[in-house]
Amino acid sequence: MFDDYHDWIQLQTTAGGLPANVIGYLGMRLVRLTAHTDLHSPNLILQKVTPSKYLSPDSLPQRTSRPQMHKWPVPQRQSSAHPSEVEFTLLKTRMEAFITVQKGEGVEISKGVSYDSLDAYYLGKHELWHIHPVDKSFHVHLHPADAKVVVERGWGEWFGLTGKMGQAWGVVFVYAARTEEDIEGIEKIWEASVEFAKAGGKV
Q1: What's the domain range around 45?
Q2: Per-residue pLDDT at 203
């Protein structure tokens, strides 16, 4: 257990959220008792929802491989396939362009902070997504039907507390972008998040 604690502390110090100490570690172990485990199953959440809402399955090509993930439910992070500084700069440039286009259409996306990120984006009071430090992955708030598409097409996996402990039903972990194709897919996911928030963020 000491090695597990030591390894978790090293990750948690980069993540925010739970304190990187014994209390935080015990909190993580309590979360583990509650968290979902089959995070790759599209039907994990709200099995009867429609196939998609704002995100067409045809808009996302199937991703054939997933990164390795750290074993803890919080912080939920990928342990492999981190983008380079150049790759992440390209993503940020495209995201800024995306936000500018949305502003031109009357959609004001603001930057703020979230529980485990200093790089979060909001429409009004609705969080759209946030970017995690180090691995540059995302947590994205979507309609659960669109979250299922993301999981099914291999672009991400469920947040372990989706639908639990006050968390929304459509929160997904989206893998970091490393290629132009990755960024194009993530732009589609951003669009679906914005549309969901514009509709009030309600299922």
Answers
A1: 38-198
A2: 77
